[in-house]
Write a structure and sequence with these properties.
Length: 452
C-alpha cells in the first residue's frame, strides 16, 4: 500500500550555529560527459561527485539517487549541458577536490563535506545559499527540520543535503553470535570487549573494517564510541572552542577504549589495506561476525548479500558505557556529503544549478531513497510500504529508538582536524601513537583552524 509518512527529523543540537564525514561508496574513477564537443547555444554546468558505475552496480542507493537526479535533470532541461566528473572516495575524491580548490578550479556543482565547505567559503569559492533558499521558500520548506545543520556556518548555509545519514552502524550476524554462546548483542562497553575476545577465540573477525581510504576508523568507528563517553554539550563546547578539548579525560578515555579493542583484535589484520566492498565480502562469506559502515550500507547489504545472511543480520550501534547510561539515547548522524555551488556563476548557470538542487530533492528522488533503504531529507515522503526491505525496517526501528542525533567531528570540524583524525587513528591502529598523543594531535589540529 501507499503510505505518506512524517520522516524522523531531529534538530542537531546547536548544529545550526557554528557547524564546520560518512562515507560513501565507490571503487573506480569514472568520467561522464554529455554532449561531447559542446553546443555554444547551451548553458554548460560541471559537477563532480562519487556516484561511480561500480557503486551503482553494488546497489549504493546514494549513487543510484545521484545518477537518477542527473538523468531527470538532463531530460527536463535539454538546453543545459551537464558535464560530470565521477571519482570514488577510494580513488581519491577528497584529494582531487582539495587540489582543484587549491588551483581555484572547482566545478560549478560541488559534492563536499561540511568540513571542506567552511574553508571554501572563506576563500570565496562557494556561495552562501541562504538567499537561494529564501528566494525559493516553497522548495526550502519541503526539507525536514535540521537538514541544513551540517552545512550551517553562523548565518550562512553552504550546502544542500543529498540524504540523511547515520555515520556508524554495526551490522552483525546473530547466528555467529549464537554459535559463540551469545544470544544478544552486548549491553555495555565491557560486555562488548568480552564479545570481541570470544569471537576472536572462535576464529571470527570481530568487526570487519575497511580503512584503506583512512576515513573508516575516524569517521565511522570512533564517533560512535566517542559519543558514548561524552555528552553532546561537551562536543558543542569543543566545536565552538568553549573550554572543552579532545584532551579532556572523557575524550582520552574513549580513545583509550578503542585502542584496547584494537589490541584485542577488533579489526581484521589488513584493516588499513581493504576497502568497504572487500570488507562486506568478508561478512557475506561468514568470516566476520560484524562489520561497520554508515547507514548507506543498508542498501549495499540488501543488494549484495545472500538471503541467509540477510535473515541473520541485525543492526545496532556501539553499546552504552556503564555509569554513563544518560548518553545511551545519542546516535551520531547528520547529512554528510552535500552539494555546494561555485561562487561567480553566470546568471544562466545559476538558474540551472538551482534547478539541479531542486531536482536532487524532488519527490521522486525522496521516494527512491526510502524504498532503496536510505533516509530521505523531506518532511514527508510518499512511498510504498510493501517495497521496504525487512533489513531497512530493522534499521528504521533502531534509528527511531534514539532520541538525539549528534554531529560527527570528522564531518563538522575543519579539514585540518579531518586530516589529523584520518592519519592519527590509522597510526594508532599500527601502534605509532598512544591515545594521549592522538588526543593532543586532534586538539592541535582543531585549534589551528581557529587561528586561521
Amino acid at each position: 500500500m501507499r503510505k505518506r509518512t512524517q520522516i524522523l527529523s531531529v534538530v542537531l543540537a546547536a548544529a545550526m550555529v557554528g557547524g564546520m564525514l560518512a562515507g560513501c561508496s565507490g571503487t573506480e574513477k569514472d568520467a561522464k560527459e554529455s554532449g561531447a564537443g559542446g553546443d555554444s547555444s547551451k548553458t554548460t554546468l560541471t559537477i563532480m561527485h562519487m556516484g561511480t558505475d561500480e557503486a551503482i552496480k553494488n546497489g549504493d542507493i546514494e549513487s543510484i539517487m545521484m545518477d537518477k537526479a542527473v538523468d531527470n535533470f538532463k531530460s527536463k532541461y535539454p538546453d543545459v549541458e551537464l558535464v560530470e566528473e565521477i571519482v570514488s572516495q577510494e580513488a581519491g575524491y577528497e584529494t582531487k577536490l582539495k587540489t582543484l580548490a587549491a588551483a581555484n578550479e572547482l566545478p560549478d556543482l560541488i559534492m563536499a563535506l561540511p568540513s571542506m565547505m567552511g574553508s571554501f567559503y572563506e576563500n570565496g569559492q562557494i556561495q552562501d545559499l541562504t538567499p537561494v533558499l529564501e528566494a525559493n521558500q516553497e522548495w526550502a520548506d519541503t526539507f525536514a527540520d535540521g537538514m541544513f545543520g551540517d552545512y550551517t556556518f553562523g548565518d550562512h548555509i553552504l550546502g544542500v543535503p543529498r540524504c540523511s545519514i547515520v555515520n556508524h552502524v554495526i551490522y552483525y550476524n546473530k547466528d555467529i553470535f549464537a554459535k559463540c554462546g551469545m544470544d544478544s548483542f552486548p549491553a555495555n562497553e565491557q560486555e562488548f570487549k568480552e564479545a570481541v575476545k570470544t569471537l576472536k577465540e572462535n576464529g571470527y573477525i570481530p568487526l570487519a573494517t575497511g580503512n584503506k581510504g583512512k576515513y573508516a576508523i575516524a569517521s565511522q568507528v570512533m564517533p560512535g564510541i566517542l559519543m558514548k563517553f561524552n555528552s553532546n554539550e561537551w562536543y558543542e563546547d569543543v566545536k565552538n572552542y568553549n573550554g572543552a578539548s579532545f584532551e579532556d579525560e572523557s575524550s582520552v578515555e574513549a580513545i583509550t577504549y578503542l585502542k584496547e579493542l584494537m589490541d584485542l583484535g577488533l579489526f581484521n589484520e589488513d584493516v588499513n589495506s581493504l576497502d568497504p566492498v572487500q570488507v562486506r565480502q568478508m561478512y557475506y562469506d561468514g568470516k566476520a561476525a560484524m562489520y561497520i559502515e554508515g547507514s548507506w550500507s543498508v542498501s549495499n547489504l540488501i543488494n549484495e548479500a545472500s538471503q541467509e545472511i540477510l535473515d541473520n543480520t541485525e543492526i545496532t550501534v556501539f553499546p552504552p558505557v556503564k555509569g554513563k547510561e544518560e548518553l545511551k539515547g545519542q546516535i551520531v548522524g547528520g547529512q554528510g556529503w552535500g552539494i555546494s555551488l561555485r561562487e561567480g556563476l553566470a546568471d544562466d548557470q545559476q538558474e540551472a544549478a538551482v534547478n539541479f538542487l531542486k531536482e536532487m530533492s524532488a519527490p521522486e528522488i525522496q521516494t527512491l531513497l526510502i524504498e532503496g533503504g536510505s533516509l530521505a531529507t523531506a518532511k514527508e515522503v510518499d512511498y510504498d510500504e510493501s517495497k521496504l526491505d525487512p533489513l531497512f525496517v530493522k534499521f528504521l526501528d533502531m534509528y527511531n529508538s534514539y532520541d538525539k542525533i549528534v554531529g560527527c567531528p570528522e564531518v563538522q570540524l575543519s579539514t585540518a582536524y579531518m586530516d589529523a583524525s584520518y592519519v592519527g587513528y590509522q597510526e594508532m591502529s599500527i601502534g605509532s601513537l598512544t591515545p594521549e598523543e592522538l588526543a593532543a594531535k586532534l586538539q592541535e589540529a582543531h585549534e589551528s583552524a581557529k587561528k586561521q
